[in-house]
Design brief:
Length: 251
Amino acid sequence: MKKFGVISCSDDKKWGFSEAIISRYLEFFSLNSEQEQWVGFHATRGEVPLTEDLHKFDGFVISGSISSANDNVEWIVKLLEFIRSAADLSKEKKRPKIVGICFGHQLIAKALGGKVGLNPDKDFVLQTELIEVTIQAFEAESIKGLFDKGPLRAVQSHGECVVELPEGAVSLATSPTCKYEVVQYKENILGFQCHPEMYASEAEELILPHIAKSRKWDAIHVKKSSDSFKMECDYKEIIRVIVEYLNSTLV
């Protein structure tokens, strides 16, 4: 039986707190409950997996968050250390895979020596966008087949993004507001800036009103965001590739 961990990095009430966030990730990423064991970690409450947990798990998914990867708080510092430990594992040892989503993606970049900063236009990105493959992606087994039918559309919701990759990381996909949309950090570590686990309708209903008010968006800006959420997203394809990656065997 394979064992996976979901590291919830948010305790936001509108999403049902950390418990509901973990349940959401299980709903999207669990392949077969009879052949898998999933463990939830409430990171914002101090529940962060330890280095010694690495050999006990086959993979971890790190969720999004309203926090910044640059915040100097204890649980984030511990997660950075955990990611570095996973990256340092040699091929002779069991290497669980790490998949970062949005904040998780940014946290990985930060942990391994990259830089995370404000979006290029200094505004919050909240819309669906097309994600396009890079040349390097055609040799990447981790996302094999993901872009066979062309660019993919996914939900974007972030105030920051990866602005500089750590040494050795490879950009696999890009989007209009994020140069490093999908990144292979290590053979066992993969990051996605987009939110394949979030429905566009949820972004419009739960996030747009708050962001529009806090950022003082005008009616045109709000309409642009809202209209983008009417377009069909390819979250199933992205989820499929992530699940296959988590369950794959590294040579």
